Amino acid sequence: MDKPIACDLNAIPSEQRQVHIILTESLFAQVEEAQGLTDGYSFRFPASLLQMAAQFVSLERLCCPFFDFTLKVIGDDLWLTLSGPDGAKLLLETEFGITPEQ
Questions:
Q1: What is the pTM for the complete model shown?
Q2: For 3, which DSSP code?
Q3: Cα–chain-centroid distance for residue 16?
Q4: How confident is residue 2, by pLDDT bands cut at 50, 70 and 90?
Q5: 6: which residues sit within 8 A by CB, 6+ positions away?
C-alpha cells in the first residue's frame, strides 16, 4: 500500500527546519538537468554536492516519508532521484517549478 502524500515539516527537529529550507534552496539552485520519470524526477548535480545531497535526503525523508530516494555518483555527476506514489511527480513539479515536457 502506498504511503499518503502528506508533507510534515514539523517532523524535522525545530533546530534543523530553517537549515533544511536553506539547504534545499541551495541544492536545487544547482540542478544541471532534470529528467521526468513516471513516478518522479531524477536531478543531475555536480558530484561535489554529494554531501549536501545526502544531508538533504536525511532531513527530507523525515517530512516526506512517501518519497523513495536514490543517490548515484557516475563520474563527475551526481544523480538524485525522488519517486513515489501517484501525485508525487506533480508535487515535485509544483515545489520546484518544473514544467513537464509536452
A1: 0.91
A2: P
A3: 17
A4: low
A5: 66
